[in-house]
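Re-running the complex after MR caught last week's input typo. The corrected sequence lines follow. Everything else is unchanged.
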Amino acid sequence: MIEIKNVSKWYGQFQVLTDCTTEVKKGEVVVVCGPSGSGKSTLIKCVNGLEPFQQGDIVVNGTSVGDPRTNLSKLRSHVGMVFQHFELFPHMTITDNLTIAQVKVLGRSREEATDKGLKLLDRVGLKAHAHKHPGQLSGGQQQRVAIARALAMDPICMLFDEPTSALDPEMINEVLDVMVELAQEGMTMMCVTHEMGFARKVAHRVIFMDQGRIVEDAAKDDFFGKPHSERAQQFLAKILQH
Amino acid sequence: MIEIKNVSKWYGQFQVLTDCTTEVKKGEVVVVCGPSGSGKSTLIKCVNGLEPFQQGDIVVNGTSVGDPRTNLSKLRSHVGMVFQHFELFPHMTITDNLTIAQVKVLGRSREEATDKGLKLLDRVGLKAHAHKHPGQLSGGQQQRVAIARALAMDPICMLFDEPTSALDPEMINEVLDVMVELAQEGMTMMCVTHEMGFARKVAHRVIFMDQGRIVEDAAKDDFFGKPHSERAQQFLAKILQH
Amino acid sequence: MNYNWNWSVFLTPVPSGETTYLGWLFTGLQWTVALSLSAWVIALVVGSIVGVLRTVPNRWLSSFAAVYVECFRNVPLLVQLFSWYFVLPELLPPALGNAYKQSDPLLQQFLAAMLCLGLFTAARVAEQVRAGIESLPRGQKNAGLAMGFTLAQVYRHVLLPMAFRIIVPPLTSEFLNIFKNSAVATTIGLIELSRQAQQLVDYTAQPYEAFIAVTLLYVCINVTVMFLMRRLEEKVRVPGFIGGK
Amino acid sequence: MYEFDWSSIPGALPLLGKGLLVTLEVTLTAIVVGIGWGTLLAVARLSSNRLLSFLAAGYVNLFRSVPLVMVILWFYLIVPQALKGLFGQDIGDIRLVSALVAFALFEAAYYSEIIRAGIQSVPKGQVAAGLALGLTPGQTMRLVVLPQAFRNMIPLLLTQAIILFQDTSLVYVIGLSDFFGTAYKVGDRDGRLVELLLFAGAAYFVICFTVSRLVKHLQARFIK
Amino acid sequence: AQESPTLKKIKDTGSITLGHRESSIPFSYYDDKQQVIGYSHEMMLKAVDAIKAELKLAKLDVKLMPVTSANRITLLQNGTVDMECGSTTNNLERQKQVGFSTSIFVIGTRLMAKKDAGVKDFPDLAGKNVVTTAGTTSERLIRKMNEEKQMKMNIISAKDHGESFLTLESGRAVAFMMDDALLYGEMAKAKRPGDWVVVGTAQSKEAYGCMLRKDDAGFKKVVDAALTKAMTSGEAEKIYNKWFMNPIPPKGLNLNMPLSDDMKALYKAPNDKAYE
Ligand SMILES: Nc1ncnc2c1ncn2[C@@H]1O[C@H](COP(=O)(O)OP(=O)(O)OP(=O)(O)O)[C@@H](O)[C@H]1O
Ligand SMILES: Nc1ncnc2c1ncn2[C@@H]1O[C@H](COP(=O)(O)OP(=O)(O)OP(=O)(O)O)[C@@H](O)[C@H]1O
Ligand SMILES: [Mg+2]
Ligand SMILES: [Mg+2]
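Corrected-run output:
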């Protein structure tokens, strides 16, 4: 489904990604972790072409992202993405947030889009809030809306970039619950997160990045059992300590 | 050391704190937790008079905070405080951050203040960064500087307001380590945090707040063993789940 | 001070007799308002386009926009107006230039003043629009793109609606400025409000009355604009966001 | 096609230089006094003292709603009366003084708005941190908030200074000759208005552009 | 001397402040060294000499203050200047606010046009663009003429004489209506003075006078006496020739404007009457 082949990327002189290669199969859930600044967000943004890269190639569902002839808008409309800070559109109601892309990008009718949107809103348990604006919801609620918004486009796979790291501890779980459910239904997911509980529960594979390289790419049990690289061991130790 | 007696506080119509009573003895470490918006930050800010309150009284080391005749600046100079977002002064070097209040408030000479500051900077492991500006340090490093800055005033007690919640997972520990050390040296501490590992390790008592009330105020083992109130049980369950 | 106050001067007829001096003030007011509003339309349209261009990821477009802004804000308005009115027609092909110069002078003055004021203010509006767009979290643009919007759609549906809401207060100041700046049109002979004050002084030799009246009229314009913009601000306020409910 | 004749510019350079001096004098005074007085106004406006903040708001709104030309004119016409009342008859040439006063008071209204926004852009936590260290509210404002407020607002302060520099030309209404006014008068005297004004425009552009580049450069160097 | 507040003030302070214009060529303007010069200015200095003699002052400090058409009346009234001689028309509206000395100049309002434009007199202007300077008598007259004679002229009111001439020069207007003396002044400044002519019958006559504070008869008497003496003694005509028939600063232009009959009449019998 997602093939990342020898991708390298520079910001001016600074190399953010060095020769990254990995793959996410259909129905697979892959968790990406690593220290801050290691390039996790950058990598995941390369997958749907939000960041350009200079070397290598990424192929999503048969379409090359690096190819200048690719219609990126079209590709992105099939790939759901959820951000750390939710990024709902603050000037629209929740319903409008859920429908606008369906109408403008997929060309669905307004009724069809609203139907679909409300169904998904119900699924994340927020039907009652359809008429509100994002600013009137808590962080956890906003993030669940953001997931529903991505799902409304009928994505073939979902990308998550630290979806819980901006949330209050109590709200983390309501979002993780939605994600766990999604994973169990067989959605293809690539997920940057430090929630090791979530990784343990649903991930098939864990990728560990450091300084722009994929240092470790292992099945879940191998990773938590004993990571090969020293850096990953250190990281795991710190993050699980307290 | 800190006595909080029947404190109530309103923002306009909205009651943030309702009849809060508790006490922190000399050398005691008290952890405050509770859901978002429950009034934890407000309570801790009342202790050194950063927020005024309308009813009740708080006595710190024999001085009433609510009394209009109290010299609040003087009181605050004896009470260290560490914030969620560090709040170092971005326009000053690390050294200036550490010395300015010593010079302006305690009236120390610049040399004495610098000496003291560098000693504490060394203690939190950051001596090499003395000449930098806060923006050039990582979050964990900034928070350690903030702790050193508070310690430079020779405080009789320390207040922490979610000192690790704005940090990357890897950096949380370097800050917690400093705090654990401080607690073990016998510093009186009142600490808003959701790091239950830290609470388990050093707290003497845990206070649980909900909707502006102190719902639970128990010795550490009682709290983790089985909290009395249902709300605290729920909260603990959620926060420890993943 | 031996000054003869004479407030009734406003009610005396002007020399040509068709109206009173008060009538003159109101004609001036009308020109000021017409000029300012039409220039404001230009400023908003051009300013928004240039402001957006400054933020797009295309070097040619964004540096074109930067050059526009630098040129129009580093040259005094008076010089710009002079160039529009006296210099520009000379640069046209002679036939066209002469035809233009023989047309109705009022039309020439109004056009030059409107274009000048509009394009000058556009440079400042552009800076506000850019600041508004840049003040939005970067993630907003990414979120729009990630949903399959084209860049144009992202600007249209995601960035601009929020950016414009954020910059309503600074735009209000620019809107007020355009009324005040419209007074420069007097230098090319357009009889707007401040010019009428001058006329009144010349004709009636009652300077204090004239200046007081005109100052009050400007204050009235300002109060009206502030009131309307405050209403607009309330109207477009987003619930749960900056100052919203 | 218009025949350009630049011959009167070289001879007029000393005069233009004098005009530029007046322009700079007015601009710099207005910047210095305007920022000082504007800061006080901004602090007053944000203070919890209702009366103080009401007065400051009134001052700012009044000055911002009257065109600068009117302010200059009023000061020129009224200040002599006031001074005469204070010091008796002879007050001499008060054109420059009244221009300086008018500009300083007028610009203070604009600067106070910028500085107010700057103060509000400093996170509340910074104030709390200053107070928590035992600094008094005054010290916190002076040592913690204002330095950051100014730093955040440098671009806006600069833009305002450029506007001010250009607006100085309005002193023509009281017969004071700044750079622009001098260029105009020389042009008028020699019948070369277009040339002199284009020359003035180019000079303004060079000065404003250079200064704004310079400030951007310094800002990039000193602010991390 | 008679009771005169202005004279008393001058005596007390030992100084007098004169208002002047900055670019009213050749009446009152700056030369290239920023010195005030011009016909009106010299006349004003005659009056100053007389004041000094009248008050028997050994030393009189003369201060100069530039004024504009917008502020000259107020500055005179509030005491900033004691007297102004420039190109200020003596008319009835102004007499309500200020006093005027004996007139020092008489002009007629006429037209300037390009030599080959075929404009000979006012009737030729029908349907054309005409420029005049805002706030002047010419503006009033031409608007009235346009109204009364249905001439369908487009009247452009420029801010000052310089801009009026620019409007004419750039081809926006076929003629520029203004006080003839000022027209000669503008013509002298033109890039090619030979291209332009002053034509047409004078539409009105106006007298320029020095502005004084109203109701200060003592002061006016001294000033009037000095000006009258200059005009009747032939001194004024010498000054006239210096400014209107000879090259003048800053560029050595020669206005070539011969003494008109009205001026001759004025010099013969000086008076302070406003035309109209
Ligand atoms: N626009 C940019 N220009 C230059 N450098 C950048 C840019 N964006 C990111 N970087 C740098 O690229 C590196 C990787 O950034 P990235 O955001 O991918 O890290 P990350 O692993 O997601 O970290 P975090 O956990 O903090 O989100 C960082 O060192 C960052 O400073
Ligand atoms: N300045 C204020 N004006 C009005 N209400 C306020 C203000 N500051 C805080 N509140 C409200 O008071 C309540 C308690 O706030 P407080 O910041 O103390 O909560 P908290 O327990 O620290 O939450 P968190 O975990 O989110 O920091 C919240 O409902 C908040 O919305
Ligand atoms: Mg990231
Ligand atoms: Mg809090």
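None of the earlier attempt is carried over here. The first strand of chain A starts at residue 2 and ends at 11. The pocket of magnesium ion (ligand 4) is lined by residues B 40-41, 161-162 (CB under 6 Å).
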